[in-house]
Amino acid sequence: MPDLPGLHSGAGRFAPSPSGELHLGNLRTAILAWLFARSTGRRFLLRIEDLDRARAGAEAEQLRDLALIGLDWDEAPIRQSDRVARYREALDRLRGQGRLYECFCTRRDIAEAASAPHQAPGRYPGTCRSLSETERARKRSERPAAWRLRSDVAEFRIHDRQHGEFRGPVDDFVLLRNDGVTAYNLAVVVDDALQGVDQVVRGDDLLAAAPGQAYLASLLGYPVPGYAHVPLALNPAGQRLAKRDGAVTLADVGRDAALGLIFGSLGLPPALPAALAEFDPARLPREAWLVRPAPGHGTNNVGAGR
Ligand code: GLU
């Protein structure tokens, strides 16, 4: 088992993908992750998840905005693109345990197999799980393989601070994509463990991914972190808030107005030290935060608060 620095002290984290400016919903999740960490005496870390959707300049904008709203962090942010050797090491260990197999399926193959009777939707149907060496050799000459986890559970249970005991399905998910890029589900598990993160606070769109990640952590001999999946911000149409919804970034709304909206939606005073003193996870809203962006500037919160 590799070194797990800082486990004794524990850490929380925020892990944005540098695909664009953070919007009010992202900033609110970052604030919540900071409040959860600081209110429990943990370190707070940032991780830039740039394996996939990176846009030049976005990382600097995001760090600027996180500092502007008053967050602080305890170490220089790490970047996933600098950590590929660590992901390889984890893959090698899983391969040594017989936990990896090559998958040659296209999206279409998976969709077709998954529509067969008795097949749970969204689950990898296991098409490539037991190919013979001859079949693999033939398929390798046709297309590059992705590498999947050979899972031996159908579901896994986690504990979530906001959702309680949560049991969710686990399938043979991809760990290394067929373009050679490490899959998010592997990188997040390796990074949380090696950074000593024992508290994962993030949007509840990722709740369904947590059982697979916790299972993978246990296979790698890592401690499973505690989770708190917090409600997302939605636009008035009930869809996930996005930059295209209008005035939803710190630059659009202004710092004080943004903090007023975010803390107002949480029922907390609009400044970090005061909010920290009053923070109580048991009193956080359970439902999504409805944000009504103005078409020009300024944003009216019609909040589904508490
Ligand atoms: N990078 C992911 C996102 O921005 C978050 C992943 C995580 O917190 O585990 O949605």
UniProtKB/TrEMBL annotation:
Key words, A-Z: Aminoacyl-tRNA synthetase, ATP-binding, Ligase, Metal-binding, Nucleotide-binding, Protein biosynthesis, Zinc
Cofactor(s) it depends on: Zn(2+)
Domain Glutamyl/glutaminyl-tRNA synthetase class Ib catalytic residue range list: 13-249
Residues engaged in binding L-glutamate: R13, F14, A15, P16, S17, E49, Y184, R202
Domain of life: Bacteria
Motif ('HIGH' region): 16-26
Residue sites binding Zn(2+) per the record: C103, C105, Y124, C128
Region Disordered, residue ranges: 116-135
Cofactor stoichiometry and binding remark: Binds 1 zinc ion per subunit.
GO MF annotation: an example: glutamate-tRNA ligase activity
Binding site for ATP: K243
Cited PROSITE patterns: AA_TRNA_LIGASE_I
EC number in record: 6.1.1.-
Pfam families in alphabetical order: tRNA-synt_1c
Top class in the EC scheme: ligase
Positions occupied by motif 'KMSKS' region: 240-244
Function: Catalyzes the tRNA-independent activation of glutamate in presence of ATP and the subsequent transfer of glutamate onto a tRNA(Asp). Glutamate is transferred on the 2-amino-5-(4,5-dihydroxy-2-cyclopenten-1-yl) moiety of the queuosine in the wobble position of the QUC anticodon.
Family membership noted in the UniProt record: Belongs to the class-I aminoacyl-tRNA synthetase family. GluQ subfamily.
Protein name per UniProt: Glutamyl-Q tRNA(Asp) synthetase
